[in-house]
């Protein structure tokens, strides 16, 4: 019997862990192939590929982000492969299972919850006697009737084979995100999250986990994303794993979901001292800093301890942090969410993800939706449209904010400029992003694409139209950010240059003769006249950029300075910038 396990991923770079777990458990008894696509692939391309594999059984792993696209594929498959058995599994169909069986008449079975043993038993009965009423954790059809069997007891994780050692995966390990679990379950009860439904946490054997990770690293994996809901729930376990990964990373990057307010000081101290820069990334779900909201959704969170952890990690300079917020939780209106946003932004995360509440099937909030007057999309991803505290107008406003937050802050295209704006020109980060997002939509820019220079030009237009003060300073910082966005000397700029050819030659000659007056780091580059012309850009600024970057208020950064940016002078191909003061009488360095 030929079995194909498939999923539609968000991107080509992602690997599906779920279908690999199923294959690892059942491949000893069945001929199983993996077939991965993306939600952007044309339906006919997916169907044609599956058709040519001539399967007897096709299984799909279903999530909120791929269920509707998967349904389209199934409906066409049934027309071209009328005899094939179609099985669904995954979190999206593990709840309201009877609803899915009634809606999707082209589906033969649904595997509910943890799937390895259930899927294997189901394949045995499909190939054998068809006694589906003996299979725990499956939904099936008996004539016109839908039968949903009782759930299966939790599996012993140490009896499951590794899903990470397929020979066909090795060639692409370095090009894809590898999803990895060291545990299953979650210790918390957040009412908006599916993980709250499974009580307790189970761990895979730590030595097997280490062995699998070494195998992946040795075979070229570059990014491993741990899907454990709270990686640091056990202090000793987390510390041992962090130590192991530090000792064996070999250039691989690891991403974890952690709960920051329970991170122990000794673990933080160890990471601050030993973690190599850029090897670890932490994703931290804050969601809300509004105490009534957190209490209502059963989310235990000590924001003071969380802040202390995030601050210490940031100050170590070793680990990038991605902090998550959810707009639309109960008891959170537009104004309290503004406070939540500013509270979390003040922690200085490298990335701040603004999501909107999704009423996931099986969660407590979906069950209590009427209580909080939620309206939400009927189909996945079930995103809210309004609540008792948040109108649709508020949702639309926050969507505008999210758009420019992604384009500017999370993309790190204008870090120096944005820091200045939010510190000196706007009441708060929330107000900057909201006002800019409103302007962006009013201009119709959400309907058209953009290149890098467009982002700078549009920000400049917004700031000028609102009458922002010290545009000369802002433009200088934007020039710095624009130059730092390039690996090579840019061929074009979007402003009128302040340094003509004659003045450029003067600056270069002085820099060649007296490089130590700029900085010791600049002198070490040992650039000659030709190098500077080929690999350097210069701009004169009407303020002391060096003092401003050192934290001096703009009122104390009076004077002029020369910005110098050098390209292709290090192995990382990152631009280097230097600032030299200019006298008011002459362009002397």
UniProtKB/TrEMBL annotation:
Is this entry keyworded Metal-binding?
Answer: yes
- Endoplasmic reticulum: present as a keyword of the record? no
Which ranges carry the B12-binding domain? 1-133
CDD domains the record matches: radical_SAM_B12_BD
Keyword terms, alphabetized: Iron, Iron-sulfur, Metal-binding, S-adenosyl-L-methionine
Check the record and name the Gene3D superfamilies matching this protein: Cobalamin-binding domain, tm_1862 like domain
- The Radical SAM core domain is annotated at 172-406
Please provide one cellular component term from the Gene Ontology annotations of this protein: cytosol
Pfam families named in the record: B12-binding, DUF4080, Radical_SAM
Per its UniProt record, the required cofactor names are: [4Fe-4S] cluster
Q: Which SUPFAM superfamilies match?
A: Cobalamin (vitamin B12)-binding domain (SSF52242), Radical SAM enzymes (SSF102114)
Q: Which branch of life, at top level? A: Bacteria
Chain coiled-coil ranges: none
Q: Which InterPro entries match?
A: BchE-like, Cobalamin-bd, Cobalamin-bd_sf, DUF4080, Elp3/MiaA/NifB-like_rSAM, Methyltransferase_Class_B, rSAM, rSAM_horseshoe
Gene Ontology molecular function, alphabetical: 4 iron, 4 sulfur cluster binding; catalytic activity; cobalamin binding; metal ion binding
Record's PROSITE patterns?
B12_BINDING (PS51332), RADICAL_SAM (PS51918)
Protein name as catalogued: B12-binding domain-containing radical SAM protein
Provide the species name. Paenibacillus bovis
